[in-house]
């Protein structure tokens, strides 16, 4: 039996086994004494039913404790290697990150902050590294098309960053430093009024990572990253029926990649930025050597410097008309700018996003709760570039208007069903390309939860989604020397189905899931009239993902766990990759908590991949030398990494901790395989990436809570 069939059959087989096993083990009937049950109020029933939407949808929750154990300062660090999640680094110079869910590409992932989908194209490349974890209470990951009622474009799924309403006054500091010019400074403060009607949350974070050049060739394998973030949020109970919520975010992120500063090649960052483009040449025409300054190599030939800023404003108003009817109005505005240098070319962009949503939750009867609403998004993106032979502008105007309805039905004490339907009108105008289209889309989705017994639970979902292939920036992060063109004229559309089976007991948790997704009209690059053009593929791409995870409480202090995953791509979807994705992954975890001590260790194994399976990535045509005689090989090796962290509480308020990420210092470059390469035309590129680009990070810190 092949791996795909094994992973696909496992959840179904276990579900049948769990039901059958309970039937065999059922005890003889016993007459029990009568039990008096106090009836719930209508409001309690309504609140309980509306919460079912969170239990029906297959959702992984990364807790605040887990975020701390990972030493995560950013969203990418918090979600990395979670089941179904892969954070892919797509460029060794600019460090661009793409968050993949269930094996689907980064543009198929939707980001939400407290349930509001106000993320942008640029955020999908550089913003996830800039989203602070200071004060974040959890990160929710819902995989599969239609995972969110208000985000039909989430073909791969939704990542929701949650900041919960505080319940008491608190002041927290978390300060840490390490090698690689690493630091993470966080401060969080909360204030709650005496009557508990008003709550305030404020957080500030600064984090930094330096450049990495393991092979000492004066060109980094991983760039420096400097982030600053300020978040403020206030909750106000205006009356017994009205609750208000306002949130303000201000972020700045700067990536500096390419020439190593403070070397003879680039004496400083300013010197690199002000240098003129030259000839990207290496000594002896070998990619592993230093740039050949005698042959005219310039720091600007490798420089990628990206500065992004984000200001976001969100407001919510919740009004209870009665115990049976609750309404909520949400509005947000996001302004994101990017000012970047990609080698000899500059790229600037400004994006403004307005979003509004009005909904009502209606308690129809004891078994049905309805949600219905309308939303709209106005997205304006303006970009310009200089330095290339042709302009590389991908500006657009996007307007979407949607309406949705959902029924949550409690069929019995064991069965819960959610049916939802969205209708959206999408209007896109590519203002620099003289191209536009208008389309109306209807996207249904179904969720079912069934409790086999006290321990075993099955969840099934099926749905459709869509996505607008908006900008060339999504495919080649904005820069091609010879310009580009946008030729897409159709929405990407998906069909998805997912089944999961979960087991929970006092000491054991187990879950396995299988997801199938097919995407039509995939956006991809095609050369037309010698110009790279973003077009719709005529083929449908299919991705499958299966995983099994379990944890076991060995003692009152020790627990162990593990996850096994497989990602399966058909040829049509594989052909759209420019960076080879993960195919197999295994994680093993051990945790200790007790006597004031905390310890966590995680080992992650990644399987080898055959380059010939990914023709568009063309890794099998990457060379170390310009003469194309020293091949980089035909496959990537299997490897594993280890992360550890230990913490000790010092009384009620203080905690000290230390740890190491990538403890064994395993890197792709350390294996003799630089992310730099020559292609078959003898041109230098920076996307030969299959493994870790950063080595061992050792850190220590202190946490204080008052």
Q: Largest sheet, described in full? A: 22 strands, antiparallel, barrel
* Broad shape: globular
Ends distance: 57 Å
Structural class: mainly beta
Number of strands: 35
Please compute the radius of gyration using only Cα atoms.
Answer: 26 Å
- Percent of residues in helices comes to under 10%
DSSP summary: helix tally: 8
Low-confidence parts lasting 5 or more residues at pLDDT below 50?
Answer: 12-43, 48-54
What does the average pLDDT come to? 87
Q: What fraction strand?
A: over 45%
Structure description:
- The chain is mainly beta and 706 residues long.
- The strands form 6 sheets. It has a 22-stranded antiparallel β-barrel. It has a 4-stranded mixed sheet with strand order 1-5-6-4.
Keywords:
single chain; 706 residues; 22-stranded antiparallel barrel; 35 strands; globular; four-stranded mixed beta sheet; 8 helices; mainly beta
Please outline what is shown here.
Helices cover 9% and strands 50% of the residues. By secondary structure, it is mainly β.
Task: Itemize the secondary structure elements and their pairings.
Elements: H1 3-25, H2 42-50, H3 52-56, E1 59-63, H4 64-69, H5 75-79, E2 85-89, E3 97-101, E4 109-113, E5 138-143, E6 157-162, E7 170-178, E8 182-192, E9 198-209, E10 224-237, E11 242-257, H6 269-274, E12 304-322, E13 325-342, E14 345-363, E15 368-386, E16 396-410, E17 415-430, E18 435-451, E19 456-467, H7 473-476, E20 485-486, E21 492-504, E22 508-520, E23 523-528, E24 531-536, E25 541-553, E26 558-569, H8 571-574, E27 584-594, E28 597-606, E29 609-610, E30 635-636, E31 639-650, E32 654-661, E33 677-678, E34 684-685, E35 697-705
